[in-house]
Amino acid sequence: MHLLLGILLPYEYHLALNLLCLYILLMIVLESITSNYTVFLFVFSLPLCVGLAILVKKESEDYFLTTLLLCVLGIVYFCMAGLRQAIAIGFCLISYKFVKERKLIPFLICILLAYGFHNSSLVFILAYPLYKSKTNSFYFVFVAICFILGYIKSGIINSLGFLLTKDSAFEVYFNEKSGGLNYTAYIIQLAMTVFCFLYKEKICEENENAGFLFNMSLIGLCVQGFAGVVSEFFRLSMYFSIFLAVLVPKAIMAEKNDQVKWLEFFIIIAVCFYYIFFLNDEAASYMMLWSK
Prior knowledge:
This protein is mostly helical. 73% of the residues lie in helices and 0% in strands.
């Protein structure tokens, strides 16, 4: 988008569009009203809180488990540091309502608002055409291909990453590698997705929009596989992997055997707590055996 604007518009106008973003305008307005830091945090966190509340209320079968999975996916931690993208994610989650209702204009308005805070939000435009598309297990082939391309640091993905970060405020991410973090996040997302696919038919029978949730989780996996090339891809994958937090509880509820259902629930809870409190630092630096 930045590259396209740079071609279509003179440099002065392109620079103005970068500077006069909603984030800066909001900062100016807030600074003219108050200098209270708590007020700033409240305003900046409001879109994300509203977006998550809508998603969790509409889609989650278990609020506690969904919140826990958001922590495991690293989304809660990242949003505490990346306020601008947190706002963008919030508007994208709010737009999910209009995706379901097939209201294109309100959806695009939400994306435009999100773009005013962070340019990465443009990837969420994929959500609208993907809502009605079917999910097939064959898509895992594309997931594997994306991971291989990301692991070998393919020139194709390297060029794509350059286009994503070129002439933007996030150009630094092009040269900043994410180390082993991408493998950890990839493994976590892959495990969640595979677990959900075990109950895919039952979930889709009971939820008309379950196919969309599966599509989003698979896109998140594909994008996460590229994070070893350019760490900007980690920021992009969050827009899609966040839906895994509501898909996993649906998979648990799809289990008809109550004993198995409770066993799955407590095992997932235990693994999540163990990861958060005991393995987080170690897992963040995890590398594949063949990478060492």
